[in-house]
Specification:
Blueprint: H1 10-30, H2 42-48, H3 60-74, H4 93-104, H5 116-133, E1 139-143, H6 146-161, E2 166-170, H7 175-183, E3 191-194, H8 204-216, E4 222-227, H9 239-247, E5 252-257, H10 270-273, E6 281-284, H11 286-289, E7 297-301, H12 305-311, H13 343-353, H14 355-378, E8 382-389, E9 392-397, H15 404-421, E10 427-431, E11 434-440, H16 448-464
Parallel strand pairs: 2-3, 2-4, 4-5, 5-6
Antiparallel strand pairs: 1-7, 6-7, 8-9, 9-11, 10-11
Helix pairs in contact: 1-3, 4-13, 5-13, 6-7, 6-12, 14-16
Bound molecules: pyridoxal-5'-phosphate.
């Protein structure tokens, strides 16, 4: 049978689909028994990936086998239970299927009329997040991740308040925000870095003083960027106090909760996150601690008009399909026109497992970090640097008779050794300008035994280096 270009027979499609599903299931079910992986050397990459543009096709089944093999050999698994670096990316099978459905049905989630059901699903799913964060009203949309969620919120703040926006951050604000501010054309002179308190949180008294001094000097447009869960230490800026500082003078409060806001699911963390509900805008990332495949971030605002004011634009060729009876045109709320149906994975996985399963999974990550802290505190070879907060803690080797420079070098070497070893991945961050080892224990399948064996290996590595 002659098929049109780029088509396969039904049998071929099914067979390829089963093959792909088998490999994903194999990956997900055997991962804990395998290594996290290590980066391949450049020669291996060159051998595996031929840069030539293929004129003709090749057998899709063989291509799939080879591609799966090439990918598995060349990625470090950020979804592995012993990947304890960055903010890990534990995913789930239902959401992976949802991504496949969204791509297979190729849902255009930019405009409500051609994707009315998806628009309703996105609105409901965004609203779940709004309610969980305690925002009294508002809306938002799904974007690619935290960087983009912060960027969208900050653009909305600038449109609302004025082009000469001054922004208040700390040294522990995520670097992607700095990048976003440059992208928005907010030059470094309009970015104030507020000191940290002893717990590495924004110092509110200094914030108060700086906001007031800037106002006296004529600054009217001000936006404070607080962080709920800094990537380095898991610290949560004092959100209620910061909200108080912002309240009187129409200062916009944006909270970057890219990974940490997920902890609203944990009752125990509610006091810590209390002021989140007073934010003007929030960034949070279901692809971090809500166990979704990349890419899904979410921006929430206390009033959807703040997004439409910033992003809505008429386009003549969209007029007929811009129905007022289906009011949700997500292209009016953010920078993308054509956008994929990101909401589906969160919607389906929450329906499949129930939000209580997500609560348990988040709680597990918090408890694991607390367990790691107890092990570290009991071990003479380690010094705890920052305690377990939102599933993150930092520590370094305690080696008598070594200078702080030598300990700093040792710390970096211990982390680098994990990358070569492949059993678990641990990286460093900096606290008070010194390198420290950092564990982020958000993966729901990470076990106490994983944490203990990883710490033992790190300990052996300290002894050998
Ligand atoms: C606090 C915080 N903000 C922003 C980001 C950037 O998010 P993304 O990598 O999804 O763009 C991260 C990433 O780890 C983060 O931890």
């Amino acid at each position: 049978m002659d098929l049109p270009p780029l088509r396969l027979t039904s049998e071929e499609m099914r067979a390829l689909g089963y093959q792909a599903v088998d490999s994903v299931v194999e990956h997900l079910t055997t991962m804990p028994t395998r290594a996290v992986g290590r980066p391949p050397d450049p020669a291996e990459l060159a051998r595996r990936f031929d840069p030539a543009l293929p004129a003709g096709g090749s057998d899709p089944a063989e291509l799939l086998t080879r591609t799966i093999d090439d990918l598995m050999a060349t990625i470090v698994h950020t979804d592995h239970p012993r990947f304890l670096a960055y903010v890990p990316g534990p995913s789930n099978y239902i959401s992976a299927l949802a991504d496949f459905l969204a791509a297979g049905l190729n849902v255009f989630a930019g405009q409500g009329l051609v994707a009315a059901g998806p628009a309703v699903i996105e609105r409901i799913t965004v609203d779940w997040l709004r309610q969980l964060c305690g925002l009294p009203a508002g809306g938002g949309l799904f974007v690619s991740g935290g960087t983009m969620a912060n960027l969208v919120a900050l653009h909305a703040a600038r449109v609302e308040l004025g082009a000469d926006l001054a922004v208040y951050i700390t040294d522990h604000t995520h670097r992607s925000i700095r990048k976003g501010l440059r992208f928005l054309g907010i030059d470094d002179a309009r970015v104030r870095t507020i000191a940290l308190d002893t717990a590495f949180r924004m110092d509110v008294r200094e914030l108060d003083r700086t906001l007031a001094a800037d106002r006296r000097a004529g600054t009217r447009a001000q936006c404070v960027i607080a962080t709920a869960g800094t990537t380095g230490t898991g610290a949560v800026d004092p959100l209620n106090d910061i909200a108080d500082a912002c309240a009187a003078d129409a200062v916009w409060l944006h909270v970057d909760g890219a990974y940490g806001a997920a902890a609203v699911l944990s009752e125990r963390q509610h006091p810590l996150l209390a002021g989140l509900s007073r934010a003007d805008s929030i960034a949070l990332d279901p692809h971090k601690w809500w166990f979704q495949p990349y890419e899904i971030g979410c921006v929430l605002v206390r009033d959807p008009a703040l997004l439409t004011n910033a992003f809505s634009m008429e386009a003549e060729y969209l007029r007929e399909t811009r129905s007022e009876s289906v009011p949700l045109n997500f292209y009016d709320l953010g920078p993308q026109l054509t956008r994929s149906f990101r909401a589906l994975k969160l919607w389906m996985s929450v329906h499949a497992f129930g939000i209580d399963a997500f609560r348990q999974a988040v709680e597990h990550g918090i408890e694991l970090a607390e367990h790691a802290q107890r092990v570290i505190e009991a071990a003479p070879e380690w010094e705890l640097v920052t305690p377990a907060q939102l599933a993150v803690l930092t520590f370094r080797p305690r080696v008598p008779d070594r200078s702080s420079d030598e300990i700093a070098q040792l710390t970096r070497r211990v982390a680098a050794a994990t990358l070569q070893d492949g059993y678990a991945l641990v990286t460093t961050t900096e606290v008070d300008a010194e390198p420290v080892l950092r564990l982020c224990t958000t993966h729901p399948q990470t076990t106490v035994a994983d944490i203990e064996s990883t710490l033992q290996r790190l300990g052996r590595s300290v002894a050998n280096l």
